[in-house]
């Protein structure tokens, strides 16, 4: 099994005919994703050539869903158009919207994540690498060749660290890896993914990657303590960040003692999470725990 994305998922790509959209649609198709259409109102009725597959372009998400049965959309549109793209997808009733776009204004993210949730559309992102269920489907920009199917679930704020932990644990494999994005407002949280992995019978252990700033990891720790029975291994980016500097993601804002890596590590460890000091050590902790469960 997998969470949110399976081999049965039918994927639309909003912004498919742009440069980034074309490049990553080609990579998604190569990974086995069932990309059934693109969306561009100015190019409706055309097709995009991806070698052995010609993908139709629709004028709207609703048209694409009616014609193909799509249940996932991946959004590769400029930041100014992300809000309208997600709103359109939610109005069409799509189940999952994966927003790759970086630089979305926070007030737009607040608006479209709230709007989508009220209409039953799960948003992943914005400013995220998407998600992959290895061997099944890949929605976004995560490299498909760095991990195989397995029984580890991964949820991460950081795209780069998603890739690194996937590579470190490539011989074990993953059920699903979800890059939730590092912006201050995102549609899907660590807690959402932890709950999904807890309910997935084919996920044995969860890797949680966080970073300095905000309190998402502290809230995840409380949820783990109260609701998660599967082992969780954590890694936190930002222990060496210089004090008083804005680092990396828009969400990585530290004020005084709030949002520090040390505080997050303490909260996670108090909830029973083993936290690695480096990605390689984190991978070793996963291997130790999996070895103890066999």
Q: Which secondary structure elements does this structure contain, and how are they paired or packed?
A:
Elements: E1 10-14, H1 19-30, E2 34-39, E3 47-49, E4 54-58, H2 61-68, E5 72-75, H3 79-92, E6 96-99, H4 106-118, E7 122-124, E8 130-133, E9 137-140, E10 149-156, H5 159-168, E11 174-179, H6 190-199, E12 205-211, H7 216-227, E13 232-237, H8 261-270, E14 274-276, H9 279-293
Helix pairs in contact: 3-4, 5-9, 6-7, 7-8
What would a concise description of this structure say?
Helix content is 35%, strand content 23%. The protein has helices spanning 19-30, 61-68, 79-92, 106-118, 159-168, 190-199, 216-227, 261-270, 279-293; strands at 10-14, 34-39, 47-49, 54-58, 72-75, 96-99, 122-124, 130-133, 137-140, 149-156, 174-179, 205-211, 232-237, 274-276. The longest helix is centred in the last third of the chain and has 15 residues, at 279-293.
């Amino acid at each position: 099994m997998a969470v949110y994305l399976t081999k049965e998922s039918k994927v639309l790509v909003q912004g498919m005919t742009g440069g980034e959209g074309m490049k990553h649609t080609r990579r998604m198709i190569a990974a086995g994703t069932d990309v059934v259409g693109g969306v561009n109102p100015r190019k409706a009725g055309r097709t995009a050539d991806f070698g052995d597959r010609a993908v139709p372009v629709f004028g709207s998400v609703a048209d694409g869903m009616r014609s193909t049965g799509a249940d996932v959309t991946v959004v590769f549109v400029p930041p100014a158009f992300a809000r309208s793209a997600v709103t359109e997808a939610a109005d069409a009733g799509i189940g999952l919207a994966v927003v790759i776009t970086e630089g979305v204004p926070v007030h737009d993210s607040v608006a479209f994540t709230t709007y989508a949730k009220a209409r039953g559309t799960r948003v992943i992102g914005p400013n995220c690498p998407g998600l992959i269920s290895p061997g099944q489907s890949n929605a976004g920009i995560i490299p498909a060749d760095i991990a195989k199917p397995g029984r580890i679930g991964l949820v991460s704020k950081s795209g780069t660290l998603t890739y690194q932990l996937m590579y470190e644990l490539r011989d074990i494999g993953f059920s699903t890896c979800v890059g939730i994005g590092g912006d201050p407002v995102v549609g899907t949280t660590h807690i959402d993914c932890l709950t999904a992995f807890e309910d997935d019978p084919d996920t044995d252990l969860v890797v949680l990657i966080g970073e300095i700033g905000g309190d998402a990891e502290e809230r995840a720790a409380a949820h783990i303590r109260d609701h998660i029975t599967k082992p969780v291994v954590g890694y936190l980016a930002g222990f060496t960040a210089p004090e008083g500097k804005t680092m990396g993601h828009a969400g990585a804002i530290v004020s005084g003692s709030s949002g520090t890596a040390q505080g997050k590590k303490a909260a996670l460890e108090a909830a029973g999470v083993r936290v690695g000091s480096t990605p390689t050590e984190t991978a070793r902790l996963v291997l130790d725990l999996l070895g103890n469960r066999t």
